[in-house]
């Protein structure tokens, strides 16, 4: 059975996208490799003068049986040799090509790996999808705003979301509209109510921006059944879904406080590849039947942030304006990044990469468990504080009822934000840095289109702090959370 | 004598720049390296899990006495070892840092090299200048448009200019206004006349975009004395000068047809470093007393395009909005590119890098001479065709009086553009690709602000084709130009 083609959503494009003409030079660049044509067309320097002959690279070797951070020696050592002119492995991108102009979509060896990976992870329901290499999800999201949005357009986002993503939109004059969330992410009924009651005559949202897995900053994950509901609402109100998924492969088992049970789980957690794949959250991409979903993936959290390499998966139609934009911005991700990542992943193979992702899951599970244990050990066990152990990502939150602060009314004028700011200053003084929730509020009250329902807040005095268990060692993490807990204890005792 | 501070040009910023709020997360990232603070602030993955332990790199070794393309062996071989945690050379950037988040301005070891390089090449007349790493000049130029321009703003550009740069502006709704050029670049008198007669009530240009050295597509270079004049006009009419200088280090001696004289010149051309530095064109940066110049440099033409690494030199004030923008777009250039380039350049040292640039100059001089020799040998020596041997860059042009085509009136209705299109098709058929000048026209007639003077054209039927001598071997280049010459001969004989 052949799959249907994606729908045409070009009517949602920005004025900029509609006005963008491809550079005429791109119409002739394919002649560079035509043996019958002597190419005097474009300013391509000879690779003879690229001053890197080859790179010898030491990396860990699947199946990483002593863990992904184990010393690179013995049977955990893999050496790659990336050269200027030759392929030492069929998945290599010779430096003469990766360091040259051209191929803005990405180098074929890397794209082919990502296409195979996509087929393994997602359940694609339309035929004409593809991938496009990016300089990471920050770049991909900013490009998304340029591709779709004009000044004055509205986009939807989780009520607390990644501050840089929101700031990028706001600088462009795009109005960010908050959607209520709970411990399972966006609440579909509230989303639908907002859209059903949208003020007539004001622009309807062109897209929703969501971080479904291990959401930043709340650490929550969007429940699978809600994704189906949200997709239905997106069809009903005709907007694009942008799923920003840097933490997708940091999914774990649920946190269990009982260490004996946990140990049992950990033994089970040595998943086979098929069990691992089956355990992953369903993606919007896997629900999409029309090419309405744009997925942003990144190597930042699974390999390294400074690779500045990620990819977009979407319909070929929707990838076209990204390609035209990128030809005028990044041109392409770094050739070194492409050669080194393609060399690594193609040597590992899809199976070796799954081994790596399983190893990562194991490390993050230990980190998460260590963090949540410490929170339960050091944060006072009262109704004032709520701990929501995450099932994915790098972040946890400590939610606090600011009204329980002894000086809530007297010193802070019943303003939870003032308590939050005070606690932030105290926590830094105590020698640990966690980030106040106020830094992540999706501002939406600048627009007259905002119906009252989105302002609704069941816990008006709730504040929270976001922490990460990614950045430091287990010992430091525990010590940091001890300091946090002691500060909270001191502050909230009468 | 201490230098003055730069002026404040923030009144020229775009609405987007004015609205851009820094991400609050950036206010705490410096605490990551504070030993007294346990950092649970940002989602920074541990470098233990970056799957690249080290890179061993083979590169050529200064002084490149057998040429910059010589085999990397014997005393022309330099091996660098870039590791995850250690500096094997003081100029190295360990991968644990370059592959981590942070340092959007660029890694210090690389920036320090570029600052020293700047002091050597330019004559800075104000104190608070700095450099900022970019993902190449395409990225830097597009960022410049975002930093300064709103929809409907006007910018000036050479009457023929790099099509991708123009297209980037036009897609953003920015009006590109052509400035007449001749064999020495922008004509200051014409520029001044345009601005003195600017239609009242229409927005005046915020900036001029110029490629002073080895201009793309015309291959011309802007004369030094004209730069002083243009700077004066920029002060008078208060606009920014953006000098896009990817070809700056592809400067050469003037072309000499007589091979004996040329050989003598070539012997002289083995310049000492101080002679080489003295021979370089004066830059707008060296004229700038106010911080009105933004210079875009790139490693694309001197090392390799796929490094996607360049830098902006400007006042610290003007670099700030670029940094804020880049934190929401590229974040930083690839860490691999930064580590590999910093490792290479700091091992070479400033002197070794000058050796490399001298070597490059030598190669391009040979290429240019070979190209111009072939043009004189194969293009009919009549008044119909003009050859302007370039003194810099990668490009040459063949200018053609389209009215001399035997079918100019009969078949082509006296339309030079129709002749150009026909010749383009014929030249590709003949097996060589050169690019028609029409692809590079700076469109300006969409705005009512355009005074008639800029439309002035002393040679209304002149068309041209741009070729490059960069991309192919000398033999292929000569064969390609033979095909071009034969085609022109055939087309223009009655």
TrEMBL record, chains A, B:
Provide the family line: Belongs to the class-I pyridoxal-phosphate-dependent aminotransferase family.
Tell me where in or outside the cell this protein is found: Cytoplasm
- What Enzyme Commission number(s) does the record list for this chain? 2.6.1.57
Q: Which cofactor does it need?
A: pyridoxal 5'-phosphate
Q: Where does the source fall among the domains of life?
A: Eukaryota
Which species expresses this protein natively? Maudiozyma humilis
Which CDD domains would you find in this protein's record?
AAT_like
Tell me the InterPro entries matching this sequence. Aminotransferase_I/II_large, Class-I_PLP-dep_aminotransf, PyrdxlP-dep_Trfase, PyrdxlP-dep_Trfase_major
Q: Which GO terms describe its cellular component?
A: cytoplasm
- Record GO terms (molecular function): 2-aminoadipate transaminase activity; aromatic-amino-acid transaminase activity; pyridoxal phosphate binding
Q: Which enzyme type, at the first EC level?
A: transferase
Q: What is this protein called?
A: aromatic-amino-acid transaminase
One Pfam family from the record: Aminotran_1_2
Which reaction equation describes what this protein catalyses?
an aromatic L-alpha-amino acid + 2-oxoglutarate = an aromatic oxo-acid + L-glutamate
Provide this UniProt record's keywords sorted from A to Z: Aminotransferase, Cytoplasm, Pyridoxal phosphate, Transferase
Q: Name one GO biological process term.
A: lysine biosynthetic process via aminoadipic acid
Where do the Aminotransferase class I/classII large domain residues begin and end?
Answer: 100-484
Q: Which Gene3D superfamilies match?
A: Type I PLP-dependent aspartate aminotransferase-like (Major domain) (3.40.640.10)
Taxonomic classification, please?
Answer: Eukaryota, Fungi, Dikarya, Ascomycota, Saccharomycotina
């Amino acid at each position: 059975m052949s799959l249907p083609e994606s729908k045409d959503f070009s009517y949602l494009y920005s004025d900029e996208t509609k006005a963008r003409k491809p550079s005429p030079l791109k119409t002739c660049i394919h002649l560079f490799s035509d043996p019958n044509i002597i190419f005097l067309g474009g300013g391509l320097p000879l690779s003879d003068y690229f001053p890197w002959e080859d790179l010898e690279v030491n990396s860990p070797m699947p199946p990483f049986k002593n863990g992904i951070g184990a010393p690179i020696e013995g049977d955990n050592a893999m050496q790659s040799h990336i050269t200027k002119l030759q392929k030492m492995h069929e998945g290599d991108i010779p430096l003469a090509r990766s360091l040259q102009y051209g191929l803005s979509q990405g180098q074929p060896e890397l794209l082919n790996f990502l296409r195979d990976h996509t087929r393994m992870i997602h359940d694609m329901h339309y035929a004409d999808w593809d991938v496009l290499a990016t300089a990471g999800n920050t770049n991909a999201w900013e490009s998304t705003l340029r591709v779709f949005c004009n000044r004055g357009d509205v986009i939807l986002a989780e009520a607390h979301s990644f501050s840089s993503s929101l700031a990028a939109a706001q600088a462009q004059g795009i109005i960010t509209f908050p959607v209520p969330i709970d411990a399972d992410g966006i609440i579909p009924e509230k989303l639908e109510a907002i859209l059903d009651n949208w003020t007539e005559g004001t622009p309807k949202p062109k897209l929703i921006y969501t971080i479904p897995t291990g959401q930043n900053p709340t650490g929550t994950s969007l429940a699978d059944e809600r994704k189906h509901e949200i997709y239905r609402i997106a069809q009903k109100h005709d907007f694009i879904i942008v799923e920003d998924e840097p933490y997708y492969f940091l999914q774990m088992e649920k946190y269990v406080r009982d260490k004996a049970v946990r140990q049992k789980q950990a033994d089970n957690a040595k998943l086979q590849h098929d069990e691992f794949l089956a355990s992953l959250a369903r993606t919007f991409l896997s629900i999409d039947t029309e090419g309405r979903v744009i997925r942003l993936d990144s190597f930042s959290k699974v390999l390294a942030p400074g690779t500045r390499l990620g990819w977009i998966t979407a319909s070929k139609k929707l990838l076209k304006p990204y390609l035209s934009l990128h030809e005028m911005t990044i041109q392409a991700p770094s050739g070194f990044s492409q050669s080194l990542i393609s060399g690594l992943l193609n040597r590992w193979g899809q199976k070796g990469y799954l081994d790596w992702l399983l190893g990562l899951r194991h490390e993050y599970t230990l980190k998460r468990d260590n963090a949540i244990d410490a929170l339960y050990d050091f944060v006072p066990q009262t109704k004032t504080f709520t701990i929501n152990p995450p099932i994915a990502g790098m972040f946890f939150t400590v939610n606090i009822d600011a009204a329980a602060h002894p000086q809530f009314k007297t010193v802070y004028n019943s303003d939870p934000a003032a308590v939050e700011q005070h606690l932030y200053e105290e926590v830094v003084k105590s020698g640990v840095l966690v980030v106040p929730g106020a830094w992540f509020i999706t501002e939406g009250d600048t627009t007259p289109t905002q119906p009252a329902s989105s302002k609704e807040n069941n816990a008006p005095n709730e504040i929270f702090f976001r922490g990460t268990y990614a950045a430091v060692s287990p010992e430091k993490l525990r010590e940091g959370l001890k300091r946090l807990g002691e500060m909270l204890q001191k502050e909230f005792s009468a």
